[in-house]
Please model this.
Amino acid sequence: MDNGESSYRRFLAGDDEGLLEIICSYRAGLILYLNSFVQNIHTAEELTEDTFAELAVRCPKFSGKSAFKTWLFAIGRNITAKYIRRHAKLSVVPLESQEFLADEENIERNYIKDEQKRMVHQALHRLNPAYRQVLYLIYFEEFSNAEAALIMKKSKRQIETLLYHAKKALRNELERSGFDYEE
Model:
């Protein structure tokens, strides 16, 4: 599959399996990205469903000016922006209430890793939303700076500057919370 584009073309031609392939490939990443806006995993899941419903019902034209994934995430971002404008007050689920499951093998190491992940996620959630978004797109979803710029509607130079400041802010947040960097 060439990053979803061929699946989308098949779906537009009447093959419903194409849409199913897109959903299976991009659902988890899109949920996590949209969660960086709304900070509520259930709302992010609903917005992800709305994004795929947009593809299924309205069948927007994919021009090919960007990667399919970039185009899909931009649609999700636009749907989320509309949601945020409609719902001024959002509820936030604190990370402390989320459970982390430990593997039976080497419980101590897994506990430390989970604790570090929790600290990183907490630090991310304390950052300015634009910092949180650019870090998520670049490091978790592995978008290029140019793709992140398209999704966030910024220039490539703005993304580079934003990424620099976001990494610096994240490091400061982690150091403030006593994060221990492993070699």
The CA atoms of residues 116 and 124 lie 12 Å apart. The longest helix spans residues 16-38.
